[in-house]
Design a protein that fits this description.
30% helix; 468 residues; Purple Acid Phosphatase, chain A, domain 2; alpha/beta; 5'-nucleotidase,  domain 2; 7-stranded mixed β-sheet; 25 strands
């Protein structure tokens, strides 16, 4: 006898709910149909479902995302870095308390209190005809952030080896839910012969028909749930083994919306707007935002970052503010709207030459006009860099290019041999935007505060006429 096993999955929604009612409808319809056919079927999420860029996620601190997953009929989920490092320890510890699905993440550990009751390193699920399936979850080890929030993420490979040894004695199939990225998934498949399926995410890769590496089929469905993935496994009960593995992704952007989910999203939006609507400041004058010019708000915000972090100097790109603020009462919703990024303040150490190179690079047209996607940035362009604690003299050439003439700190030119502490957005500690910052051996992140928390402080203290 042959038995089909179906796994429908999503990854990296990032609270982009524009397609969510289609996703929910697709998942509920397929799960109901398979269940009616007595075909084993599970619905799975591979992390970064939550992203505090959206007001619903911000207001409910992710718990509304869990409610939406409950309504869509999820059975299993692992966590991504957006669940793990963008909220306080207590908020994550309670995040899945009301989940109707099992949360599985083998390499996440609390360092300040008992593990959450919802946290499972691995789970075993069973098909209609008794096939035992072991599911292991893994998340990316961003311990520079996690450990500031009293969590630790252990090495995925060592964790996986331990969990596989436990499971393979009692299960027929092993599946890994991996929020590690495509390169790590491929390496895991090469190292571990016992893994049958890796359902991935994190790097937003789309594998339309899966990829075969060693014994495993690897799959992932891009980002924002424009696609929903499906894995189909065929088990031969006579031979007692898997004889076929398939993986597909389906474009759901043209499908009908689920009315019940649409209604729930509308209700959550109303509640979120109310929750975020409390006044935090009152502005007598409009606060202007310009991406390619120095503005008072960016100068004050960068000053706040320098003081907040107790750094020698600070630098912050103007593109982090997406819109101006009109005169009148300002709510947290307004602040979230213009500064939605899950970006934390960070302090790095640079010597004088490195700091000078960073300043020069920040004045290039290429960096200012860069349309960045990712690294926590949810804006349009990087924009002009604003500095605090440094005096920068520039000259503008006939072609419009602006270059650095002189940089001083406390009245003196930058000292090549001195180490300076520089506060900035953690965005620049990743990738190659500003290599000197990314390569700094000393990085101190400030969690759980986001840039918008510093913005709220700045508006209350430097712009508000009344905050009572």
């Amino acid at each position: 006898m042959l038995e089909k096993l179906h796994f429908y999955y999503t990854n990296d929604l990032h609270s982009n709910f524009s397609q969510w009612s289609r996703v929910a409808g697709y998942l509920k319809d397929n799960k109901a149909r398979k269940t009616a056919e007595n075909t084993s079927c599970w619905v799975v999420d591979v992390g970064d479902h939550i992203d505090r860029v959206h007001p619903i996620a911000e207001a409910f601190m992710g718990k509304a995302n869990v409610e939406l997953m409950n309504h869509a009929g999820y059975d299993l989920a692992t966590i991504g870095n957006n669940e793990g490092i963008t909220m306080s320890h207590e908020d994550l510890h309670q995040l899945y308390d009301a989940a109707d699905f099992q949360v599985v993440c083998a390499n996440l550990h609390s360092t300040s209190q008992a593990e959450p009751e919802w946290l499972n390193p691995a789970v075993t699920i069973q098909s209609f005809n008794g096939i035992e399936i072991g599911v292991i979850g893994l998340t990316a080890p961003f311990n520079a952030y996690y450990e500031l929030l009293d969590w630790h993420v252990s090495d995925p490979y060592k964790t996986l080896k331990k969990q596989i040894q436990k499971l393979k004695q009692s299960v027929d199939i092993i599946i890994v839910l991996s929020h590690l990225g495509i390169s790590e998934d491929q390496e895991i498949a090469r190292r571990f012969q016992d893994i049958d399926v890796i359902i991935g995410g994190h790097t937003h890769h789309l594998l339309r028909t899966g990829e075969y590496v060693n014994n495993a089929i690897i799959t992932a469905a891009g980002k924002h749930c424009a696609f929903v993935g499906e894995v189909i496994l065929t088990w031969d009960h006579t031979k007692k083994k898997l004889i076929h593995k398939e993986a597909y992704t389906t474009d759901i952007t043209h499908l009908a919306r689920d009315p019940e989910t649409e209604k729930t999203l509308r209700e959550l939006t109303v509640k979120a707007n109310h929750m975020l609507g409390q006044r935090i400041a009152h502005l007598e004058n409009k606060v202007e935002v310009k991406w390619f010019q120095d503005t008072e708000i960016m100068l004050k915000l960068t000053d706040t970052m320098k003081k907040w972090t107790n750094a020698d100097c600070a630098m912050l790109n103007s593109g982090v503010l997406l819109d101006q603020l009109e005169a009148g009462d300002i709510s947290y919703k307004d602040i979230h709207r213009i500064c939605p990024h899950p970006i934390n303040p960070c302090v790095v150490e640079l010597n004088g030459d490195e700091l000078l190179e960073v300043i020069r690079a920040s004045y290039t047209k290429e960096l200012m006009e860069l349309k960045l996607k990712g690294f926590g940035f949810r804006g349009e362009v990087i924009g002009r860099m604003t500095f605090s604690g440094l005096k920068i003299e520039t000259e503008v050439h006939q072609d419009g290019h602006e270059s650095i003439k002189k940089v001083t700190f406390n009245g003196k030119q930058l000292d090549q041999s001195r180490t300076y502490t520089v506060a900035t957005a953690d965005t620049f500690t990743f990738g190659r935007l500003l290599p000197e910052i990314a390569k700094s051996e000393t990085k101190k992140y400030f969690l759980p505060e986001f840039l918008r928390d510093l913005l709220a402080y700045t508006l209350r203290n430097d712009f508000s006429q009344s905050d009572d």
